Amino acid sequence: MNAVLRQTLSPARHPCGGLRVLIEGEPCVLRCSGALWVINHRTLIAADLHLEKGSAFAARGQMLPPYDSRATLDRLEAEIDALSPAAVVLLGDSFHDAKSIERMANDDRARLDRLATGRDWIWLEGNHDVAALSGALDDLSGEVVETMDLGSLRLIHDPRPGARPGEIAGHLHPAARVVAHGRGVRRPCFVTDGRRGVLPAFGAFTGGLDVRDPAIAGLFAEPPMAAALGKHRVHALAWDRLS
Question: What is the pLDDT of residues 216-243, one digit of tens each?
Fold first, then answer.
Protein backbone atom coordinates (compact mmCIF):
# COMPACT_ATOMS: atom_id res chain seq x y z
CA MET A 1 0.00 0.00 0.00
CA ASN A 2 1.48 3.36 -0.95
CA ALA A 3 2.23 5.95 1.74
CA VAL A 4 -0.46 8.42 0.62
CA LEU A 5 -3.16 5.75 0.66
CA ARG A 6 -2.03 4.49 4.08
CA GLN A 7 -2.12 8.01 5.51
CA THR A 8 -5.61 8.67 4.06
CA LEU A 9 -7.10 5.39 5.30
CA SER A 10 -5.12 5.00 8.54
CA PRO A 11 -5.91 1.24 8.55
CA ALA A 12 -5.58 -0.56 11.87
CA ARG A 13 -6.63 -3.97 13.15
CA HIS A 14 -9.92 -3.86 15.06
CA PRO A 15 -10.55 -6.33 17.93
CA CYS A 16 -13.28 -8.04 15.85
CA GLY A 17 -10.68 -8.97 13.23
CA GLY A 18 -11.87 -6.30 10.83
CA LEU A 19 -10.01 -3.17 9.77
CA ARG A 20 -10.60 0.27 11.25
CA VAL A 21 -10.24 2.89 8.51
CA LEU A 22 -11.13 6.50 7.79
CA ILE A 23 -13.46 7.11 4.84
CA GLU A 24 -13.82 10.83 4.10
CA GLY A 25 -12.85 11.42 7.72
CA GLU A 26 -15.48 9.08 9.20
CA PRO A 27 -14.08 6.29 11.42
CA CYS A 28 -15.41 2.98 10.07
CA VAL A 29 -14.79 -0.72 10.58
CA LEU A 30 -14.65 -3.09 7.62
CA ARG A 31 -16.26 -6.11 9.30
CA CYS A 32 -15.45 -9.75 8.53
CA SER A 33 -19.10 -10.26 7.57
CA GLY A 34 -18.79 -7.74 4.75
CA ALA A 35 -20.80 -5.10 6.61
CA LEU A 36 -19.55 -1.59 7.31
CA TRP A 37 -19.75 -0.19 10.85
CA VAL A 38 -19.77 3.62 11.01
CA ILE A 39 -18.54 4.16 14.55
CA ASN A 40 -19.62 7.67 15.45
CA HIS A 41 -23.14 7.13 14.11
CA ARG A 42 -23.54 3.57 15.48
CA THR A 43 -24.80 2.59 12.05
CA LEU A 44 -24.44 -0.83 10.41
CA ILE A 45 -24.46 -0.86 6.61
CA ALA A 46 -24.81 -3.98 4.47
CA ALA A 47 -25.17 -4.19 0.69
CA ASP A 48 -26.83 -6.59 -1.71
CA LEU A 49 -28.51 -9.19 0.49
CA HIS A 50 -30.47 -10.55 -2.52
CA LEU A 51 -32.97 -12.29 -0.25
CA GLU A 52 -34.92 -15.07 -1.98
CA LYS A 53 -32.46 -15.43 -4.83
CA GLY A 54 -32.64 -19.21 -4.39
CA SER A 55 -36.43 -19.27 -4.75
CA ALA A 56 -36.21 -17.00 -7.81
CA PHE A 57 -33.90 -19.48 -9.52
CA ALA A 58 -36.13 -22.39 -8.45
CA ALA A 59 -39.14 -20.69 -10.04
CA ARG A 60 -37.23 -20.75 -13.34
CA GLY A 61 -36.39 -24.44 -12.98
CA GLN A 62 -32.81 -24.03 -11.71
CA MET A 63 -32.91 -25.74 -8.35
CA LEU A 64 -30.79 -24.24 -5.58
CA PRO A 65 -31.01 -25.01 -1.86
CA PRO A 66 -33.82 -22.77 -0.51
CA TYR A 67 -31.90 -21.57 2.53
CA ASP A 68 -30.13 -18.45 1.28
CA SER A 69 -32.46 -15.98 3.01
CA ARG A 70 -32.12 -17.78 6.33
CA ALA A 71 -28.32 -17.92 6.07
CA THR A 72 -28.12 -14.23 5.15
CA LEU A 73 -30.43 -13.21 8.00
CA ASP A 74 -28.39 -15.35 10.41
CA ARG A 75 -25.30 -13.31 9.55
CA LEU A 76 -27.15 -10.02 9.75
CA GLU A 77 -28.62 -10.93 13.13
CA ALA A 78 -25.17 -11.88 14.42
CA GLU A 79 -23.86 -8.44 13.46
CA ILE A 80 -26.80 -6.71 15.16
CA ASP A 81 -26.32 -8.78 18.32
CA ALA A 82 -22.61 -7.94 18.37
CA LEU A 83 -22.96 -4.21 17.77
CA SER A 84 -26.44 -3.18 18.95
CA PRO A 85 -26.63 -0.50 16.24
CA ALA A 86 -28.81 2.58 16.51
CA ALA A 87 -29.50 2.25 12.79
CA VAL A 88 -29.25 -0.39 10.07
CA VAL A 89 -28.98 0.70 6.45
CA LEU A 90 -29.42 -1.90 3.71
CA LEU A 91 -27.73 -0.50 0.65
CA GLY A 92 -30.05 -1.76 -2.09
CA ASP A 93 -30.82 -5.08 -3.76
CA SER A 94 -31.93 -6.40 -0.40
CA PHE A 95 -34.48 -8.53 -2.29
CA HIS A 96 -33.66 -10.35 -5.50
CA ASP A 97 -36.79 -9.53 -7.49
CA ALA A 98 -40.25 -7.97 -7.35
CA LYS A 99 -41.88 -11.05 -5.81
CA SER A 100 -39.20 -11.94 -3.27
CA ILE A 101 -41.17 -10.60 -0.32
CA GLU A 102 -44.19 -12.69 -1.32
CA ARG A 103 -42.04 -15.83 -1.44
CA MET A 104 -40.33 -15.32 1.93
CA ALA A 105 -41.16 -17.80 4.65
CA ASN A 106 -43.31 -16.33 7.41
CA ASP A 107 -40.64 -16.82 10.06
CA ASP A 108 -38.04 -15.00 7.92
CA ARG A 109 -40.43 -12.07 7.45
CA ALA A 110 -41.12 -12.04 11.19
CA ARG A 111 -37.39 -12.05 11.92
CA LEU A 112 -36.90 -8.97 9.73
CA ASP A 113 -39.51 -7.17 11.81
CA ARG A 114 -37.82 -8.25 15.06
CA LEU A 115 -34.40 -7.10 13.88
CA ALA A 116 -35.82 -3.67 12.99
CA THR A 117 -37.47 -3.19 16.38
CA GLY A 118 -35.93 -0.47 18.55
CA ARG A 119 -33.67 1.06 15.87
CA ASP A 120 -33.85 3.04 12.66
CA TRP A 121 -34.14 0.64 9.73
CA ILE A 122 -33.55 2.03 6.26
CA TRP A 123 -33.91 0.32 2.90
CA LEU A 124 -32.15 1.91 -0.06
CA GLU A 125 -33.66 1.12 -3.43
CA GLY A 126 -31.57 -1.03 -5.73
CA ASN A 127 -32.09 -2.05 -9.34
CA HIS A 128 -33.29 -5.52 -8.30
CA ASP A 129 -35.68 -4.53 -5.53
CA VAL A 130 -37.17 -1.13 -6.34
CA ALA A 131 -40.45 -2.80 -7.41
CA ALA A 132 -40.49 -5.07 -4.35
CA LEU A 133 -39.91 -2.19 -1.95
CA SER A 134 -42.44 0.16 -3.56
CA GLY A 135 -45.09 -2.55 -3.31
CA ALA A 136 -44.40 -3.36 0.34
CA LEU A 137 -44.22 0.02 2.04
CA ASP A 138 -47.19 -0.80 4.28
CA ASP A 139 -45.84 -4.24 5.24
CA LEU A 140 -42.11 -3.74 5.81
CA SER A 141 -40.68 -2.20 8.93
CA GLY A 142 -38.51 0.82 8.30
CA GLU A 143 -38.15 3.56 5.72
CA VAL A 144 -37.43 3.30 1.99
CA VAL A 145 -35.14 5.94 0.42
CA GLU A 146 -33.11 6.39 -2.76
CA THR A 147 -29.99 7.86 -1.12
CA MET A 148 -28.98 8.92 2.38
CA ASP A 149 -26.44 11.23 4.01
CA LEU A 150 -24.62 10.02 7.12
CA GLY A 151 -22.11 12.53 8.45
CA SER A 152 -19.63 13.09 5.64
CA LEU A 153 -20.81 9.93 3.85
CA ARG A 154 -23.31 9.67 1.01
CA LEU A 155 -25.00 6.26 0.86
CA ILE A 156 -26.21 5.05 -2.52
CA HIS A 157 -26.80 1.71 -4.22
CA ASP A 158 -25.10 2.16 -7.60
CA PRO A 159 -21.77 4.04 -7.52
CA ARG A 160 -21.54 7.07 -9.78
CA PRO A 161 -18.57 7.90 -12.03
CA GLY A 162 -16.24 10.75 -11.31
CA ALA A 163 -14.93 12.10 -8.03
CA ARG A 164 -17.52 11.34 -5.33
CA PRO A 165 -15.99 12.10 -1.92
CA GLY A 166 -17.78 10.20 0.84
CA GLU A 167 -19.78 7.93 -1.45
CA ILE A 168 -20.49 4.46 -0.04
CA ALA A 169 -22.07 2.10 -2.58
CA GLY A 170 -22.82 -1.54 -3.30
CA HIS A 171 -24.18 -3.07 -6.52
CA LEU A 172 -20.87 -4.26 -8.02
CA HIS A 173 -20.13 -7.19 -5.65
CA PRO A 174 -16.34 -6.68 -5.64
CA ALA A 175 -14.09 -9.71 -5.21
CA ALA A 176 -10.29 -10.02 -5.11
CA ARG A 177 -8.05 -12.88 -6.16
CA VAL A 178 -4.56 -13.41 -4.79
CA VAL A 179 -2.04 -16.16 -5.34
CA ALA A 180 0.07 -17.43 -2.45
CA HIS A 181 2.23 -20.56 -2.31
CA GLY A 182 1.06 -21.53 -5.77
CA ARG A 183 -2.63 -21.44 -4.90
CA GLY A 184 -5.22 -18.88 -5.93
CA VAL A 185 -7.90 -17.66 -3.53
CA ARG A 186 -10.86 -15.48 -4.54
CA ARG A 187 -12.76 -13.64 -1.81
CA PRO A 188 -15.40 -10.89 -1.57
CA CYS A 189 -13.80 -7.61 -0.63
CA PHE A 190 -14.25 -3.98 0.26
CA VAL A 191 -12.63 -1.46 -2.06
CA THR A 192 -11.68 1.99 -0.77
CA ASP A 193 -9.16 4.76 -1.20
CA GLY A 194 -10.21 6.57 1.96
CA ARG A 195 -12.40 8.95 0.00
CA ARG A 196 -15.12 6.61 -1.22
CA GLY A 197 -15.88 2.90 -0.87
CA VAL A 198 -17.67 -0.05 -2.45
CA LEU A 199 -19.00 -2.79 -0.17
CA PRO A 200 -18.98 -6.53 -0.92
CA ALA A 201 -22.28 -8.31 -1.37
CA PHE A 202 -23.65 -9.55 1.96
CA GLY A 203 -26.02 -12.20 0.57
CA ALA A 204 -25.32 -15.92 0.77
CA PHE A 205 -25.97 -16.58 -2.94
CA THR A 206 -24.16 -13.62 -4.48
CA GLY A 207 -21.26 -13.77 -6.91
CA GLY A 208 -18.47 -11.27 -7.37
CA LEU A 209 -16.87 -8.98 -9.94
CA ASP A 210 -13.06 -8.76 -10.10
CA VAL A 211 -11.92 -5.54 -8.43
CA ARG A 212 -9.67 -4.85 -11.42
CA ASP A 213 -12.67 -4.70 -13.75
CA PRO A 214 -13.00 -1.14 -15.13
CA ALA A 215 -16.48 -0.86 -13.56
CA ILE A 216 -14.76 -0.90 -10.13
CA ALA A 217 -11.17 0.22 -10.79
CA GLY A 218 -12.41 3.15 -12.87
CA LEU A 219 -14.12 4.68 -9.82
CA PHE A 220 -10.75 5.50 -8.24
CA ALA A 221 -8.23 8.07 -9.48
CA GLU A 222 -5.38 6.13 -7.83
CA PRO A 223 -5.11 2.38 -7.08
CA PRO A 224 -7.28 1.74 -3.97
CA MET A 225 -6.96 -0.84 -1.22
CA ALA A 226 -8.86 -4.10 -1.53
CA ALA A 227 -9.83 -5.54 1.85
CA ALA A 228 -10.63 -9.23 1.42
CA LEU A 229 -12.93 -11.10 3.78
CA GLY A 230 -11.37 -13.96 5.70
CA LYS A 231 -13.02 -16.21 8.23
CA HIS A 232 -11.75 -14.27 11.24
CA ARG A 233 -9.88 -11.33 9.69
CA VAL A 234 -10.19 -8.78 6.92
CA HIS A 235 -6.97 -8.73 4.90
CA ALA A 236 -5.68 -5.45 3.42
CA LEU A 237 -4.32 -6.11 -0.07
CA ALA A 238 -2.16 -3.74 -2.05
CA TRP A 239 -3.34 -3.32 -5.62
CA ASP A 240 -0.15 -4.77 -7.08
CA ARG A 241 -0.69 -8.01 -5.10
CA LEU A 242 -3.93 -8.80 -6.90
CA SER A 243 -3.72 -11.51 -9.55
Answer: 999 999 999 999 999 899 999 988 888 7
